[in-house]
Amino acid sequence: MKATIITIGDEILIGQVIDTNSAWIGKHLAELGHTIQEIVSIKDERDSIIETLDRAVQKSDWIFLTGGLGPTKDDITKKCIAEYLNVDLEFNEEVYQRIVSMFNRFNRKVSESHRIQSYMPSGGKILYNRMGTAPGLLMSKGQTKILSMPGVPYEMKAIMEDHIFPVLKNGYSQDLKVYKRTIMTAGAGETSIEDRLHTILERFPEYIKVAYLPSLGSVRIRLTSFGGSQSELDGYVSVITNILGDIVYGYDDISLSESLLNLCTSKELKIGLAESCTGGILAHKITSIAGASKYFEGGLVSYTNSLKHKLLHVQLDTLHQYGAVSEQTVIEMAKGALALLNVDVAVSISGIAGPGGGTETKPVGTTWICIANKQHHDAFKILGMKDRINNIEYSANIALNNLRKFIMRYYS
Amino acid sequence: MKATIITIGDEILIGQVIDTNSAWIGKHLAELGHTIQEIVSIKDERDSIIETLDRAVQKSDWIFLTGGLGPTKDDITKKCIAEYLNVDLEFNEEVYQRIVSMFNRFNRKVSESHRIQSYMPSGGKILYNRMGTAPGLLMSKGQTKILSMPGVPYEMKAIMEDHIFPVLKNGYSQDLKVYKRTIMTAGAGETSIEDRLHTILERFPEYIKVAYLPSLGSVRIRLTSFGGSQSELDGYVSVITNILGDIVYGYDDISLSESLLNLCTSKELKIGLAESCTGGILAHKITSIAGASKYFEGGLVSYTNSLKHKLLHVQLDTLHQYGAVSEQTVIEMAKGALALLNVDVAVSISGIAGPGGGTETKPVGTTWICIANKQHHDAFKILGMKDRINNIEYSANIALNNLRKFIMRYYS
């Protein structure tokens, strides 16, 4: 199946909102073996919408439209679809009643704009939206399906998951099959990985494409096979894994946190945190994964020296002599966290996230991390050279990866 | 000036990479008063590139192309531009020497692919790239400028900043001026806001466009004035602010955390947290903002009942009788946090983020929040209907907004 993805809204064109919907739709369609012809973002105005729709109809089996279905005045997508397909807008009682019952549940009042929102192009199929009031709408123009969805990402995703993927899975498998695997690595840079893989990659078949997708502290290696077979691709994944060794922490977009969840639950370990500069993001990364409570006890964000002393028992002398960002402090923080939180392994972090607070000897980005259990501790320093948000994210990823390596070393 | 932005690369179409380049270019062009006609992402294949270029030339003064200039095998952008403009590719000694000297500096070897990379369509202007090896390339087709840049975001940005923005600023100022303001609100839905503004917005001039940009727990109201003046637009912003009252927490993309930082430092308040279901994201949101240490003491992520009891002194009876997700528990958590962290105001959260853990009486998404100081406490329940990540994000935003309202009420 050939698809065109259209997002409607000035806010995307002028960069107020980054279009993540198209990437999500593209990713899922590609995984099902479909071809994305084009992704296009246009203004919410009649001429652009109708012209783009018409162009997409010429070359697509499916058109995925997002945006412009909310109860706002710049919401003209439905009108344009109706005009383009030469049908009327008609009041849909079922859509309206769903809004009424949803609002009743939350004790909120239905307004006139909800009545307007309930007008739909006639002849379309209404797709129930379990995440919001604006339903999806599926129309046809000749052989082409036109699917219109709200722009709110979780609403769009719910409609795709509930109504579209099941249908696509059954009916559209005659395209070229695309197989994908992603090798997840942490702790090595893109260039260093590339150097290690360079020779072997030249022997891979032409139809296997390799892409490096670096982010802070980790690199995803994406293999896409246009044709071939899944088992052939899996063989190449094993070859790469053998070359890269312990920087590979998993496959297929598993996060470091998920890999930690699996590792720690299999070893029945309880983990706790003492964060300073990362300010809670390490706990957040861990608890984003359902099931984290199986191994994560809790964490203290000790943003001040007095909390580091009072709750983690970091000695005032240590703070005074070496400073909060030092090897001595993170070791005491980690040991304090082991006791305070009653856990098997604790991670501590203290650094200078910036933009202020840097000195000659401890520039912005200097971060100390310690991983400890009752017998061992590994403390090390890293130096980010990025801004505050990136320093925080980077240190948290390094800490998670080193927690993983600590557990593999001492609990193998 | 009318612009079209084209990004080239399969990795965008199949969702491996989210296109942030277009948003960045769009934002900067819009700020300079230019109009973005369309953003389009296409495959790195000849027909798509040439057809899209030709369509863009028909309706644009400038075309911004990113992607497809690196030293990789699927790099055909330059070839297509040359073909489309009917010129040859010729070896550019200056480009090659720049690569050689850059690689010498890093003690790396220049390869054959760098020679290939140094072929450029003839007649183009080469734009030096201080961040990488692939330069930008500026060509013309009739009145239309075609600018081709590498897809690596910081390389694209360097070329735009060094070579393009200065030119655009000087040469293209006869366009319509665009003024923008954004009103930041939290605690009311899009529809409720629209209902309150509906009548007044009808009296605004036609050239002022209003868009609602909802996210979890907050709505940004963006006003864009195509023409008019900044002071006129500011007047309309005041009108809207007066109507909406205390749901307005700031302007122009300030975050709730930033607004809290300003509020709490001006009142010299110290804040602490006791998080359960939100798992540290509340602390992370607060500490993402530089200067948070002026008012944020710290937080405990008490993910288990035993930590809630041991450190926050939530009574075992309370946990047993009412459960961890209850009004009684969050009140005791907040009071415990006031003492443990020695702060003026504490926020506690306990909920069922999902996907598991829901019951008939406490479905997934049920979250209790309490804001307390020594004299007062406000505890309330919210009900998300979203998935784990969204429930966590939503509760954190509601908590931040209610902390803001608590402070405005009791410390005015």
Structural account:
The structure is a homodimer of 412-residue chains. Chain A is α/β, with parallel strands linked by helices and 412 residues long. In chain A, strands 2-1-3-8-7-6 form a six-stranded mixed beta sheet, sandwiched between helices. In chain A, strands 14-13-15-16-17 form a five-stranded mixed beta sheet, sandwiched between helices. The mean pLDDT of chain A is 91. Chain A is globular. The first copy, chain A, has 15 helices and 17 strands. In chain A, a hairpin with a 4-residue loop joins β16 (366-372) and β17 (377-383). β14 (296-302) of chain A pairs antiparallel with β14 of chain B, so a sheet runs across the interface.
Short structural summary:
The structure is a homodimer of 412-residue chains. By secondary structure, chain A is α/β, with parallel strands linked by helices.
Query: What characteristic shape of chain A results from the CA principal axes?
Result: globular
Strand order of the largest sheet of chain A: 2-1-3-8-7-6
- Pair with the most extensive interface? A-B, 91 and 91 residues
Specify the biggest β-sheet of chain A.
Answer: 6 strands, mixed
User: How does the helix and strand content of chain A classify structurally?
Assistant: alpha/beta
- Approximate strand percentage of chain A: 25-35%
Helix run count of chain A: 15
The tally of beta strands of chain A, per DSSP, is 17
| Unreliable runs of chain A | none
Share of helical residues of chain A: 40-55%
Write down the oligomeric state: homodimer
Round the mean pLDDT of chain A to the nearest integer and report it. 91
Radius of gyration of chain A: 26 Å
- Report how far the terminal alpha carbons of chain A are from each other: 47 Å
